[in-house]
TrEMBL record:
Keyword terms, alphabetized: Aminotransferase, Pyridoxal phosphate, Transferase
Protein name: Aminotransferase
Any one Pfam family match given in the protein's UniProt record, by short name: DegT_DnrJ_EryC1
Stretches of the chain forming a coiled coil according to its record: none
Extent of the signal sequence: none
Highest taxon of the lineage: Bacteria
Matches recorded under SUPFAM superfamilies: PLP-dependent transferases
Similarity comment text for this entry: Belongs to the DegT/DnrJ/EryC1 family.
InterPro entries xrefs: DegT/StrS_aminotransferase, PyrdxlP-dep_Trfase, PyrdxlP-dep_Trfase_major
Lineage: Bacteria, Pseudomonadati, Pseudomonadota, Acidithiobacillia, Acidithiobacillales
N6-(pyridoxal phosphate)lysine sites (modified residues): 187
Species the sequence originates in: Acidithiobacillus marinus
Amino acid sequence: MNELLKKIYVTQPFLPPLEEFLPYLEQIWDNKILTNGGPFHVQFEQALCEYLGVEHVALFTSGTIALVTALQALRITGEVITTPYSFVATSHSLLWNGIRPVFVDIDADTLNLDPTKIEAAITPQTTAIMPVHCYGRPCDMEAIEKIADNYNLKVIYDAAHAFGVRDENGSVLRYGDLSILSFHATKVFNTFEGGAIICPDVKMKTHIEHLKNFGYVNEVTVIAPGINGKMSEFNAALGLLQLKYIDQVLGERRRIDGVYREQLHGIPGIRFPSMPVVSAANYAYFPILVGPEYPLSRDALNELLREHNIYARRYFYPLISGFPMYRGLPSAKRENLPVATEMAQQVLCLPIFPGLNEYEQKRITGLINLLAHNRKSEAIL
């Protein structure tokens, strides 16, 4: 197929060779254990702990169920301060627990929750803060946790994008009371569907293991109103296989990130959000901000890219706070969220995935660059 006719998507899952997965399937069939904490489940948990540099991991069927369960595990009630600039699962997990989201604006440079806006949103009903490591870029954890300590609040990090991200002291997943990962097919590391809670100690992990399995302790004892959040052996086996390739995947993403930065640098109206200082990034997404200096609006640029079979994504747009189940909240008013509103109107995540070759990537950057110097779109069509 002609390269120009290929559709270039914002994200594509990395899939190991099928022949490497077949022995895992054969073992599952031979063991006749499909779920409920089978051998691959146990191996995968141990492998993740070793790779991520954490002590305790509880695997889940999805990151969303992990979020819902984490809130249950910490007995969070009342109000939780969070960001409107995220995927809806962040705030949906609060509603599913009968918790009121309180939206706080984001930082214009990092697009993460702005710590300077948190204290003003705290009320007597506030019990926790749920920040998001947006695009896998760590939020200001030191500032957030200082506020949480001062007001005796729990901190649950939605770290869905932050697999493998480290600061100078190790994994960013070690911060807060709990951190949640997603292994959805669109993530840097995936098990098709899946997720995990990073637990600080054995006691919390044991509690979470009960909650994700209907509250069962043994065949005749149920101690909590749990849910079915268990990861299957199939997904755990895929995770074990994916781990063999993760460093290769991250290296490829790093290369693509570098090419984008080099080729898009200096284009009027195109800005990159700030990257916090980390010792290991995962390059989960490549967002650009399309400002008024660019000849086209963000939406017009997105449409032109699509006409050329390049599928970028306006991620995150619209804001969570604009959806019907949230827009009636006082904290959801646009005037309370000026930065998030502006960034949601400008953001465009460009394709980044292993297998995006240099030719295809230069076609993307070349088109954006050409458009910057042609105010009439007809000039490039």
